[in-house]
Automatic annotation (TrEMBL):
<keyword id="KW-0808">Transferase</keyword>
<protein>
    <recommendedName>
        <fullName>4-diphosphocytidyl-2-C-methyl-D-erythritol kinase</fullName>
        <ecNumber>2.7.1.148</ecNumber>
    </recommendedName>
</protein>
<comment type="function">
    <text>Catalyzes the phosphorylation of the position 2 hydroxy group of 4-diphosphocytidyl-2C-methyl-D-erythritol.</text>
</comment>
<dbReference type="Pfam" id="PF00288">
    <property type="entry name" value="GHMP_kinases_N"/>
</dbReference>
<comment type="pathway">
    <text>Isoprenoid biosynthesis; isopentenyl diphosphate biosynthesis via DXP pathway; isopentenyl diphosphate from 1-deoxy-D-xylulose 5-phosphate: step 3/6.</text>
</comment>
<dbReference type="GO" id="GO:0050515">
    <property type="term" value="F:4-(cytidine 5'-diphospho)-2-C-methyl-D-erythritol kinase activity"/>
</dbReference>
<feature type="active site">
    <location>
        <position position="138"/>
    </location>
</feature>
<feature type="active site">
    <location>
        <position position="14"/>
    </location>
</feature>
<dbReference type="Pfam" id="PF08544">
    <property type="entry name" value="GHMP_kinases_C"/>
</dbReference>
<dbReference type="GO" id="GO:0005524">
    <property type="term" value="F:ATP binding"/>
</dbReference>
<feature type="domain" description="GHMP kinase C-terminal">
    <location>
        <begin position="205"/>
        <end position="269"/>
    </location>
</feature>
<keyword id="KW-0418">Kinase</keyword>
<dbReference type="InterPro" id="IPR020568">
    <property type="entry name" value="Ribosomal_Su5_D2-typ_SF"/>
</dbReference>
<keyword id="KW-0547">Nucleotide-binding</keyword>
<keyword id="KW-0414">Isoprene biosynthesis</keyword>
<keyword id="KW-0067">ATP-binding</keyword>
<feature type="domain" description="GHMP kinase N-terminal">
    <location>
        <begin position="71"/>
        <end position="145"/>
    </location>
</feature>
Length: 278
């Protein structure tokens, strides 16, 4: 139910159409070349004015996700409050529809949605991008929210024209394993397999790869089985792991192909979402 004073935003699932790991940084991070794209659906974040800052989490993946100060929604809220010198609070409500630690940026998308929503609620025009950067490598891309190329830690962004990608039927499937990002990067073999092509994003993605697939499959063999399953679906244009996994995505030529793959995924895998690319 939507309340009179409530503001709401979707925190769309992020996918990495391709993810090239080019090397290690001097710190704990890796140098990336990636194309971020966004689904039309994701988590939903709502906010109402309140004196105190609070977060309530509901929805299919609420269980096990801490609503305390470590939650990215509250970290984003605190960071914005400090940057903007705001003393007001906010009552935040998160519908957690996306699996957690899944490579589809749920936490990053939630943080970006919190920044956008609270900037509206508190009427501040403080720049959000530096705050996003301080919250995680993926948060600036989620704040942009449209197809964008990422370099550096994934936070040096260049907008790209989505071209024929917008509206493409998209299936997300998770094999039921949580994959923390750090250990997957740590399992990367250190081999630079070359640059991600420039230009039209679907063509660049098709010619590219996800360099984290191999280490993620070593840590979680079910991802390899899921990729083989997705690649065998009729009408599939591209099937790949997103981010550090374990969620994999498939792009389809036609709505009918997506509908058939979704029906099969509901039978064979713990979680899936059929949607389109934004
Ligand atoms: C792999 C990607 C691809 O989009 O997505 P996810 O799988 O997390 O969705 C991202 O690079 C994740 O971004 P994000 O999840 O925001 O990462 P952070 O919280 O900043 O970092 C978590 C950990 O991931 C590793 N990390 C992250 C980014 C990067 N360029 N190099 C890294 O090595 C580091 O070990 C870091 O401590
Ligand atoms: N609102 C949130 N939603 C999801 N995860 C969150 C949130 N706040 C903090 N986290 C933590 O962030 C980590 C990364 O989660 P998430 O963004 O879902 O995955 P990924 O980085 O693989 O895309 C998880 O380990 C989780 O505990």
């Amino acid at each position: 139910m939507s309340l009179a004073n409530e503001l709401t935003e979707t925190a769309p699932a992020k996918i990495n159409l391709a993810l090239h790991v080019r090397g290690r940084m001097p710190d704990a991070y890796h140098r990336l070349e990636t194309i971020f794209a966004f689904a039309q659906e994701g988590d939903r974040l709502s906010v109402e004015p309140d004196a105190a800052l609070s977060l309530r989490i509901e929805g299919p993946f609420a269980a096990g996700l801490d609503a305390g100060p470590g939650n990215l929604v509250l970290r984003a809220a605190e960071a914005l409050r400090q940057a903007a010198g705001v003393s007001a609070g906010a009552a935040l409500r998160l519908a957690k529809n996306l699996p957690v630690a899944a490579g589809i940026g749920g936490g990053s998308a939630d943080a970006a949605a919190a920044l956008r929503l609270l900037a509206r609620l508190w009427g501040t025009e403080v720049p959000l991008e530096p705050i996003a950067r301080s919250l995680g490598a993926d948060v600036p891309a989620c704040l942009a929210g449209h197809t964008v190329r990422g370099e550096g830690r994934g936070d040096v962004l260049t907008p790209v024209d989505p071209g024929r990608l917008s509206g493409t039927p998209l299936l997300l499937v998770n094999p039921g394993a949580a994959m923390p990002t750090g250990p997957v990067f740590a399992a990367w073999d250190g081999m630079d397999r070359g640059a991600l092509a420039q230009g039209e994003p679907l063509a660049a993605a098709l010619a590219g790869r996800n360099d984290l697939e191999e280490p993620a499959i070593r840590l979680c063999p079910a991802i390899g089985e899921l990729l083989a399953w997705l690649r065998a679906r009729p009408g599939v244009l591209l099937a790949r792991m997103s981010g550090s996994g374990a969620t994999c995505f498939a792009l389809f030529e036609r709505d009918e192909d997506l509908a058939r793959a979704e029906a099969a995924a509901r039978r064979d895998w713990p979680w899936c979402l059929a949607t389109i690319l934004a």
